[in-house]
Design brief:
With 273 residues, the chain is an alpha/beta fold. It is 41% helix and 23% strand. The protein has helices at 18-28, 36-40, 45-54, 67-73, 76-85, 108-127, 139-142, 150-157, 167-172, 177-183, 228-238, 255-267, and strands spanning 5-8, 32-33, 58-59, 62-66, 89-94, 131-135, 144-145, 148-149, 162-166, 188-193, 195-205, 212-219, 242-245. The chain has a 9-stranded parallel sheet with strand order 3-2-1-13-10-9-6-5-4. Strands 7-8 form a two-stranded antiparallel ribbon. Helix 6 links the parallel strand 5 (89-94) and strand 6. Helix 6 (108-127) packs across helix 8 (150-157) and helix 10 (177-183) packs parallel to helix 11. The longest helix is centred in the middle third of the chain and has 20 residues, at 108-127. The relative contact order is 0.15.
Length: 273
């Protein structure tokens, strides 16, 4: 069986040259990035795709920030971008229930409406040869309606929707990510690897506000609670192509230091190329 590849999302300084940062990641050993699509769409797309290829890197997905932005903008812009970049994966990064972390309650009707929006968008993507996936956080596992978690509602009521499983958030929600990976294997589009230190949450700034909200104390892979090698083994058995690392907030290391550590920890498994 072919070895997996390392990918990443985040870990980039907005004030530094994005291409230099992509090249530095490629030199570490990364072969794909979810950041790369936005970068490649700036300027001459054909030249940018060739530039990515030359450095041994590829754009992994096109995306929208939330179910709300998907409904407001429609799925067509993502489909157009995917075709421009020859990408077959798209992702919605936040669902309605994510914002319960910021004291924005989600009702059953709101969640079901969002699932309907996701399913219709997934159908359109499917007709264009694209897999639309949903990126989970912990509330999808913690919040239930009528005896079903929101995660299981997504699986049941949006049959054409794929899952981009974040095994760090899955662990934080109290589940065994290896078991979840195997359970949802037929619906997996991609997997995010994220680790956190056990213990109290930390307070981080709320987007565009002076307020804060609670988040896990994120750290580099292998330093925290995540069963990194168990998840890698499961992904390899399932046939996932990329292990995509992510760290929402830095702990003790810089972004580039953490990116280096994450790759080496995964490489040590013998599963990554």
């Amino acid at each position: 069986m072919a070895k997996m590849k390392a990918g990443f999302i985040g870990f980039m300084d907005r004030n530094a040259d994005p291409w230099a940062q992509l090249e530095a990641a490629a030199k570490i050993g990364y072969r794909g990035s979810e950041n790369a699509s936005g970068i490649a769409l700036q300027g001459d797309v054909k030249e940018n795709r060739a530039r990515l290829k030359d450095m041994g890197m590829e754009a992994l997905t096109v995306s929208t920030m939330s179910g709300k932005t998907l409904e407001e903008d429609g799925v067509e812009p993502m489909i157009e971008k995917a075709h421009m970049l020859d990408i077959s994966r798209a992702v919605v990064f936040h669902g309605k229930v994510y914002f319960t972390k910021m004291n924005q309650p989600a009702t059953y009707d709101q969640v079901m409406h969002e699932i309907e929006v996701l399913q219709k968008a997934a159908e359109k993507c499917k007709s264009e040869g694209i897999r639309l996936a949903y990126h989970n956080h912990d509330p999808e596992f913690r919040i239930s309606f009528n005896g079903l978690t929101v995660f299981d509602m997504l699986l049941a009521y949006a049959p054409d929707l794929w899952i981009e499983l974040d095994v760090g958030w899955t662990t934080y929600a109290g589940l065994d990510p290896v078991k979840v990976l195997h359970r949802v294997a037929p619906r997996l589009s991609a997997v995010h690897f994220k680790d956190f230190l056990p213990g109290p949450d930390v307070q981080v700034p709320l987007w565009g506000s002076k307020e804060t909200y609670s988040m896990p104390n994120f750290c580099s892979l292998g330093s925290g609670a995540l069963n990194v090698h168990g998840c890698l083994k499961a992904c390899h058995e399932i046939g996932i192509e990329y292990a995509i690392v992510e760290q929402d907030y830095m702990h003790a290391l810089s972004q580039q230091e953490a990116l280096q550590v994450d790759y080496l920890v995964m490489k040590e498994s013998g599963i990554l190329e």
